[in-house]
Design goal:
mainly alpha, globular, single chain
């Protein structure tokens, strides 16, 4: 403390001097005040200056409040205005000085890092999870700062060049960030037929550099990012840095744009979620591909993926009850959430990790990987509990209930849903409570069916739980969970041989899942609609809904595609191949409207595959 007193006194004297010169008219502009601060404040002593400024401000404010003499009061007011000018210019100075110090720190840490750590060090300074990540103008200054050391080390020169090229490429792409969305007959999102349309193709045309151009063309054609990375034997550090900055700015730009769409909050957040998932998956695939050929690029890819997921996990719309979204689908994403698993094993138990594992657990359940799903949710449950993230803890209890239903272990499913219900009511988590009611009702319906209990009253209470959950979800406006609840109610009524009521809920469930963008729930609702129509001996609608459900589930690599495939095979055997094909043909326009011509043409091939594997 004693060491800081002389400096504090010096800063008090500086403040008094500026006030006096201002009153005398010798300091006539805010720029002069700024220059005096810049000249006299020592770097790293800002807290001491702030304390001195606060003391003087408090003293003069008291003078203004208590002074009765009008002349003295007027002088105190002029002093107060001068002090507030100093305060404003100090804030300006502190902000600029903070940026200068951050750039100097980045230059020092990058240049002194080992060769293997330089890239990772750079990526820490652009991490959106940092309190003050470097912005584009600061990165330009960083590139210039690194150039001073470029002759000493070729890697530093490469990083500097990569930053400069990456920022220049982003400048060219910025005006075309969302232009592809307005192409004729395009929906929002990254889905669609591979080729010349869509974001990747649009962006490929706008970049000048060979490496990002090749990467964008790969994605535009629906090809594997892993194979692309494996083939880049001549990629330089500068190439990699350039692509990293381009992808980072594209992802952030898209999320910011989607977040600000006032016309449809649900569509905006749905597309933001899809953007986070898509870019995280791309980085995980690049990490996988480069990991086989260039370890530091592979590790840096994993680092980029985790930065995105950690940022995503902190968003208010992070989907604790969802995982697979339609708007950024594509063949290169097929089974892609698998790739996120390995890098996560290197991360310590944090709240963000618990939420990411929750997402992976849901996705693995959709893929039919039930044991992996359980493992993810158990890990997430423990981490969330230790991190006191109650909504995440409740979500994982609910997910475990759903997964155990899929495993046909209904007693465990009921156990987890009851725990979720108790905990959600204790915590006041209405969303968690609604999901727990749905899961409890659904688990009890399935258990009663397994035990071959046919009395209608056995199902009254479970269906009541489901209906309570639906009412609560409608009030909360949670579309994702509502889609799940409608699906569960539809299946419950199917189980108790009420197909007409089941159809009502399943059709609503399908439409709601479309709004939520959840491909898994879309396919699942359609699969059970086919079952309901089959019970009613409506072959035409059973073929239409079954074919769509089979295709959508197979597209996300869910093993559940075989359920509608089996039903369609039975129908084909009953009515004959020709009649089956005629009924399918009748619904061709409606099917194409949802999955396109290629999707329609793929339906017979899927049936053939299923029949060959029987």
């Amino acid at each position: 403390m004693s060491d800081s007193l002389p400096l504090r006194d010096r800063y008090l004297a500086l403040i008094d001097e500026i006030v006096q010169l201002t009153l005398q008219g010798k300091v006539s502009s805010v720029e002069m005040v700024y220059q005096m601060l810049q000249k006299n404040i020592t770097s790293g002593t800002g807290e001491i200056f702030e304390l001195a400024l606060s003391d003087r401000l408090s003293i003069i404010q008291n003078q203004v409040d208590s002074e009765q003499d009008e002349l003295k009061k007027a002088k105190a007011n002029r002093s107060l205005r001068a002090i507030k000018t100093i305060q404003n210019q100090w804030q300006r100075y502190a902000e600029q000085n903070k940026a200068i110090e951050a750039i100097a720190t980045a230059v020092r840490e990058i240049t002194t890092a080992s060769t293997d750590e330089r890239l990772a060090t750079l990526l820490r300074f652009t991490d959106p999870n940092q309190k003050h990540p470097l912005n584009s103008s600061q990165l330009q200054q960083l590139a210039k700062g690194l150039q001073q050391f470029a002759q000493l080390d070729p890697d530093i020169d490469q990083i500097s060049q990569g930053i400069t090229r990456g920022l220049a490429s982003w400048q060219r792409l910025q005006d075309h960030l969302i232009s592809w969305m307005y192409e004729q007959n395009r929906d929002l999102g990254f889905g669609g037929v591979p080729g010349e349309n869509g974001p990747w193709a649009t962006w490929a045309k706008k970049v000048n550099s060979e490496f990002p151009y090749g990467f964008f063309r790969t994605l535009a054609l629906g090809q594997s990012a892993i194979e692309f990375a494996e083939q880049q034997s001549n990629v330089t550090l500068g190439d990699w840095v350039e692509l990293a900055l381009i992808l980072q700015y594209l992802q952030r730009g898209l999320v910011n744009w989607f977040d600000q769409q006032p016309y449809n909050v649900q569509a905006g957040s749905k597309l933001s979620i899809s953007t986070y998932l898509t870019f995280a998956v791309i980085w995980s695939q690049l990490a996988s591909g480069f990991g086989n050929t260039a370890a530091r690029f592979g590790n840096a890819g994993s680092q980029m993926m985790l930065q995105i997921l950690r940022n995503f996990a902190q968003r208010p719309y992070f989907p604790l009850y969802g995982g697979i979204f339609a708007s950024f689908s594509g063949s290169y994403l097929r089974n892609a959430l698998d790739y996120l698993d390995e890098p996560l094993r290197q991360v310590e138990g944090t709240q963000e990790k618990a939420r990411i594992l929750t997402l992976l657990g849901y996705s693995q359940r959709a893929l039919g990987q039930y044991q992996r799903s359980i493992n993810f949710h158990l890990q997430a449950l423990e981490i969330a509990r230790n991190a006191s993230d109650r909504p995440c803890e409740i979500a994982n209890l609910n997910h475990l209930s759903r997964t155990y239903v899929q495993e046909k272990d209904y007693s465990e499913a009921i156990n987890y849903s009851q725990r979720a219900l108790i905990l959600s009511r204790q915590a006041g988590d209405r969303n968690g409570e609604a999901n727990a009611l749905v899961n409890l009702g659904y688990s009890e319906v399935m258990q009663a069916q397994q035990l071959e209990q046919v009395e209608p009253e056995t199902y009254e209470m479970p269906i009541n739980y489901l209906e309570q959950g639906l009412k609560l979800l409608e009030r909360l406006g949670d579309i994702q969970s509502k889609a799940l609840c409608l699906s569960s109610l539809g299946i419950a009524y199917l189980v108790i041989d009420q197909p007409e009521t089941a159809i009502k809920y399943l059709e609503d469930g399908f439409k709601t899942a479309q709004t939520a963008g959840d491909l898994y729930l879309q396919g699942r609702n359609l699969a059970y609609l086919a079952e309901a129509y089959y019970q009613l001996q409506n072959a035409e609608k059973a073929i239409y809904t079954g074919s769509l459900g089979m295709y959508l589930l197979e597209q996300i690599a869910s093993s559940e595609w075989k359920q509608p495939a089996g039903l369609l095979t039975i129908l084909q055997g009953q009515i004959g191949k020709e009649s089956f094909q005629n009924l399918l043909q009748q619904h061709r326009p409606k099917i194409i409207a949802i999955i396109g011509v290629d999707g329609y043409d793929h339906i017979p091939a899927l049936l053939t595959t299923y029949q060959q594997d029987m």
